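Dataset card, provenance and construction

Sequences and ligand SMILES were collected as paired inputs. For each pair, a complete structure of the chain with the small molecule in place was predicted and serialized as structure tokens. The example below shows a pair involving pyridoxal-5'-phosphate. Curators did not alter the output after generation; any descriptive sentences attached to a record were derived from the structure itself.
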Amino acid sequence: MGEPNDISYGRQWIDEDDIAAVCRTLRGAWLTQGPAVEEFEKALCGVAGARYAVAVANGTAALHLAAIALGVGPGDTGIAPAITFTASANCLAYCGAKMRFADVDESSALIDVAKLAKQVKSLAAAGKTPKVIVPVDMCGQPADLPEIRKIADSVGARVLCDSAHSLGASYEADGAKHPAGCCLHSDAAILSFHPVKHITTGEGGAVLTNAPAIYARLRELRTHGIHKDAARFERTGEGPWYYEQAELGYNYRITDIQCALGISQLKKLGAFVARRRQIAARYDQTLSVKLLAEKLTPLRQLPGRESSYHLYVVRVRAGKGEGLDKVAELRKGLYEFLRQRKIFTQVHYIPVNWQPYYRKNHGSNFDECPSANAYYASCLSLPMYPAMTDDDQQRVIDSLTEWSRSR
Ligand SMILES: Cc1ncc(COP(=O)(O)O)c(C=O)c1O
């Protein structure tokens, strides 16, 4: 038997149809700002159930433009969960907002809505009413959006849902099932098409919204803040070349080459998500066996939410009398144990409030989100991607079993 192959925590799945789609675009007239961008946006609306989509260069650009379009400015207060990729908070900080971090429910890694309600109330009482709250559909499980919407509405805050992990997921509200990204309970939502996500365009992202005014603004902000709407021109009679820049925008455009890949990938989203769920079900089953269940526990899946499993997180369990330091040590041991067997896991995420930038510039500290700390000490993302073979997953399962026996 040869050397075992590397197994990473996530990776893309590109097939010949994807390659052919990109090549067709390369042979055509448009490399950027052509018909593929709008076609991709329409297809995204079809999947996510929002009225409008604006495809952009990456998920971070999507967050940034959405934050501007929702009116975030210097001196505003913003809220993002402690457990997320830093981009979910950075987008509000780019606009000059002071960031506050919401603690998460340790068992699901989603915003703890009871704590959020209290935090929002006390911020409002202190004259720091949040302008925008950014819930994150962590690992592919939608956040409690109906409840977060209510909390936001109680103080007139906007909701920008970070759905970078949850394309293809759904949640129930008022007796109906809604796709992640539908914006029924948010003013806007964003997606990312980074290679480890459900579908990829290399780099890429999109903002989703149901509001025509936000949509129009996003389209201009994506391309320098420039428009060609004669009805709004401050100057007349120049000529057909004329445009105006009404506000400060960016070049956050995505290319037709990327969108051709995105359109092709999106056709396979159903199959990708089904395979992710199959892999998750096998991990769940493995982790329910006594030997493993005593040492490891999967992330809690809440009723009424159907995750699309961007990540599959396990948490290392504390033994009797063991504290967080011991859990963190065991988690590090498991990471190394798997790495020696060429299984490359990851930790999602280090609490954002721990980051030096936020401690130095936004007044955050290490202890403000205790449940996020408990989650962080214990979490590990196991390999999860549709192209993972059953044999590769078996290798992961065998290694987890071996580690559980040795602990
Ligand atoms: C939760 C979350 N939000 C935002 C982003 C940013 O997306 P991108 O890498 O496309 O800029 C990521 C990327 O990993 C993410 O995981």
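Derived descriptions for this record:
Residues 269-287 form the longest helix (19 residues).
The chain has 14 helices and 17 strands.
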